[in-house]
Write a structure and sequence with these properties.
Nucleotidyltransferase, domain 5; 2 domains; six-stranded mixed beta sheet; 7 helices; 11 strands; 27% strand
Length: 237
């Protein structure tokens, strides 16, 4: 089977929203997303079955499992990555990992501005990276990092670029960015990474055969889980 006709299952769970999509060379043929607080573990399996039903395919027909590897909220990210790895191992198919920040930036590729993707990391911080639009998508120009919104705003101002700021981090901490010269904050349509974008980006990588084994998938957490940090802070007090 040529890679251009392989069906890809994309699993995205790095933020407060969780979703999956199925597609291939013809584009996305089924997708489902939901925002139900921190109930990712309860939502994901029914979503995958629903997407298969909507696409009219059996799970055994999936040829590649793609997953959002973060950065993102620890529990949701762990649910998605663990589910994707288990499915890939069961189906004996390769995997493709894509950054949540890449997924946020990809739908904004129409802009001539620098794209800054910002995910709410909780604890008064955002995960972020910067991108430029290129033919067919976006190119990352800074490495993923975690900072306070005010520090990110200062860095954007120092670079003196016209910026389109996307993601729920931009909306959650909008007071830091609103009215700042050169910064446009995108609306809620660009607030979350999308499983549709994941399938599209994974398809391009599948054509180049950029696969990894399930045991090679490495989530990008950037910092310790909130529960661990709170425990450490309590022990120091």
């Amino acid at each position: 089977m040529g890679f251009e006709v392989v069906l890809i299952l994309g699993i995205e769970s790095a933020t407060s929203r969780v979703g999956c999509a199925i597609g291939g060379h013809e584009g996305v043929i089924a997708s489902v997303h939901s925002s139900r607080g921190r109930r990712h573990a309860e939502s994901l399996a029914p979503q995958i079955q629903f997407a298969c039903d909507q696409a009219g395919v059996a799970l055994r027909e999936i040829g590649v499992v793609a997953v959002d590897v973060g950065p993102g909220l620890y529990t949701g990210l762990r649910v998605g990555v663990t589910t994707a790895m288990a499915l890939a191992q069961t189906l004996r198919v390769p995997m493709i990992g894509v950054s949540s920040l890449d997924l946020l930036a990809f739908p904004a590729a129409h802009t001539s501005r620098v794209i800054v993707a910002a995910i709410d990391a909780r604890r008064g911080e955002v995960f972020h990276a910067s991108y430029r639009a290129v033919p067919g998508g976006v190119q990352r120009i800074t490495e993923p990092a975690v900072d306070r919104p005010g520090d990110l705003c200062s860095a954007i101002e120092a670079n003196n670029d016209d910026v389109l700021l996307v993601g729920d981090g931009a909306l959650q901490y909008g007071d830091n960015f609103e009215g700042v010269s050169g910064i446009e904050v995108a609306d809620r349509s660009l607030a979350f990474p999308s499983a549709d974008a994941l399938v599209s980006l994974a398809h391009a990588r599948a054509l180049r055969e950029e696969f990894v084994r399930p045991d090679q998938i490495e989530p990008l957490y950037l910092r310790r889980p909130d529960a661990v940090a709170k425990w450490d802070d309590r022990n120091k007090s």
